[in-house]
């Protein structure tokens, strides 16, 4: 971790003051405009509100990466017990339509009885949530549960 010097703190605080001062001026100008106390505008020169200069921060969060367009799930023709969990879920949803997570887990247990039921159920719950969040499957909330479909 980088050492922060006293000069870094002073520079940061001065930048923060200038940014907040500029923001306060903009807010005051907006408030004056809405309350009818706008500063008089001359005929040749309109009122101008200064925008703050961008402050280059040395610290803070990195910008979030841009999300890529996600392709829908590929549905296999037949069930493959050695395939990925995504394709197993896609197969079950394509054959049965919209299902709750517990129904998907039951169908997987029927197709793979040798798998540990507890591990399978946890893995399916996590995978369904991730697929839904990534918009690779649709989920409609019914009560406290989601009903998933392709």
Automatic annotation (TrEMBL):
Region Disordered, annotated ranges: 42-69
Source organism superkingdom: Bacteria
Name under which the protein is recorded: Uncharacterized protein
């Amino acid at each position: 971790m980088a050492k922060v010097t006293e000069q870094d703190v002073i520079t940061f605080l001065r930048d923060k003051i200038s940014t907040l001062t500029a923001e306060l001026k903009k807010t005051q100008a907006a408030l004056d405009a809405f309350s009818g106390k706008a500063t008089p505008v001359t005929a040749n020169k309109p009122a101008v509100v200064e925008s703050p200069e961008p402050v280059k921060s040395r610290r803070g969060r990195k910008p979030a990466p841009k999300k890529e367009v996600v392709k829908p799930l590929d549905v296999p023709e037949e069930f493959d017990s050695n395939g990925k969990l995504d394709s197993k879920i896609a197969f079950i949803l394509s054959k049965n339509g919209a299902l709750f997570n517990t129904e998907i887990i039951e169908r997987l247990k029927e197709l793979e009885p040798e798998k540990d039921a507890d591990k399978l159920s946890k893995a399916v719950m996590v995978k369904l949530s991730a697929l839904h969040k990534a918009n690779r499957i649709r989920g409609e909330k019914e009560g406290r549960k989601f009903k998933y479909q392709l």
